[in-house]
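User: Modeling request: complex.
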Amino acid sequence: MSQTKTIDLFFGPQHPGITGNFSVRVTVDGDTVVKAQVIPGFLHRGFEKLMEMRHWIQGPALICRICVPDPDHSETGYATAVERLAGIEVPERGRYIRSLMLEMSRLSAYLFYFGGYAGSIGLYTVGQWGVGDRDYILDLFEELTGARVYHIFNFPGGPRWDTPPGFEDKVDKLMDFLEKRLKEFDKLYFNNRVFIKRARGTAPMTKAYAQKMEVTGPNARATGWAIDVRKDDPYAAYPDLDFDIITQKEGDNYARVIQRRMEFEQSIDLIRQITRKLRKMPRGNVRVTPNPLHWKIPPGEAYGAVESSKGELGYYVVSDGGIGPYRMQARGPSISHGVQVYEEMVVGQRVADVAALMFSLDVCPPDIDR
Amino acid sequence: MSVKKEGSYVSPFRALKQLVKKPHTVQIPKVVKPPAERYRGFHTNNLEVCIGCGNCSRVCPDNAIKMVPFPEYARKEPGSMPLRPQVDYGRCCFCALCVEVCPTGSLQMVRTFTHVDEKKDSFVFIPDSKVVHETPDFVLDTKNLRRK
Amino acid sequence: MSEQDFVERMAKFPGSEVKLLRKGQIAMKVPADKGHEAAEYLKKMGFTHLVAIEYVDWIKDNEFELVYNLFSYSSKMRVFLKVRISRDNPEYITFMDLWPVAMTHEREAHEMMGIKFKGNPNLTPFILEDWKEIPPMRKDFDSRKFVKEKYDSIPFVEDEP
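Assistant: Request completed. Predicted assembly structure:
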């Protein structure tokens, strides 16, 4: 047996095939990865420490920055945890508006995701389309919340404002548009032979492995494991909405992308259900928040989780009776599938699939670093 | 979704028909897309109505608001202080919490969000009712913002 | 099984202090030396999903609290398994044998709180780089002082004239 020579390669943090500020050190033997080590921490901003110096109400202004493409889930996770801790019940209309925002946020995150994976295998048009269509969702966010990317909208106690007049119609119109666009995406991307050849059978994850490594979200559902925080630990208006958990079987790159594509369709359907309900509901009462400057929460702890576009995103909040959290800890979805799972799954892959696997798992470095 | 098992080499070429479609973008600066009604831009403050209570400064998550003395507004009303808020837009994150806690409703946000200057100090100013407006017709509706 | 059944079954574990916090969330406090045993007990009850390992610094009691956040997909219940360890010599045992992904969570707790986990082979620097101060998530770490020393060119708002 001849001695093989291995080389260390650094992927990132300035590599275009990396999802954000992240780095992977891969040891390659020829074209095959034999060892990988992730290096997170380029985006560590110390949110958990900073939260300890803030009031309860100031949280959403800060922690929406935890996951950049999908900020509403961060806000809502925190808000859900604080509501559970303080025993606040959000009015019905508030819960529906919250769900509407979350699903819109999921759509925008998935449009990024489609482009990301397609970009990693050289289909750059998908990314341009995705970002272009995402902008229409951001326009609606601007109309509802007053900001495009970081909305600072889902406060503990409910969303800040009611929808502007005629907003539901605009949302429905956009959903029709996105549904039409999805058909074009199918032709361009999901039925593209290049994509299918590259993705099918690459880096499969079994259901047993997903269960062993606590993988959550679409990655777990792509292996056939039907878990969804929206069903398991309901929040916002999800207990009242009608939807089933979508699963795939194979758990490879192809299944993971198709899983998101199917959930995209499901989100459109959920948004239509929500707008139908919102039109029938009396306007006005959306939020119950105590006076933010003198808001104290009795000692205790609570956990609030949401199903973000990447998996289970949860917040553990501890109060000691003060005006702000004593401790706040975020559980980012990527802490499981971005570190250990990725390190193990990338072994045996080709160098060209290092970035593709990272995109297909949808690793979000900011929620590892926080 | 109609997935063919093997996919197709031909169907992606249908994307070419986008070439004859209108672009998604608008032609800046010939066409400018106005911000939405609720857009959170610079502050505006009615200095006559403001009582200088400092709630905005206390609730600000970024410490962007500093209360500066204004002796000419010394009044005898209870709770009134001869202070007015000064905002540092290098720190402001435009969350509008200050607008939310303002008891008089004098502090508002306008839709204008552009300010270009070479000097760093020009980004720190005391918002008054004259704050640069391109769209003076709109201020944030605070009826829904009132705290309980 | 209802929540009350779960509470009763957990209370049977020797030395445990069980409290139903709210719908679907239970807190279970056990002595530090029984932690691993309790985790196994809970795993057998169906709490198979380790969501996260949370760590809280209770500086007044001179104790660190480790919270093993477990979820059961079969009964949709969540339990916070809490153990307290001394602040002076923070050391605990790894739960990697029960949940392999505990390795990452323990690595983070080691870095941010300075808790050593016996049996975890990978307690290398994780997020922070060239860290020489005390672990940053401890309550006695003064982040304002740290920022002032490290980035002295940017003054605080309060320090401005």
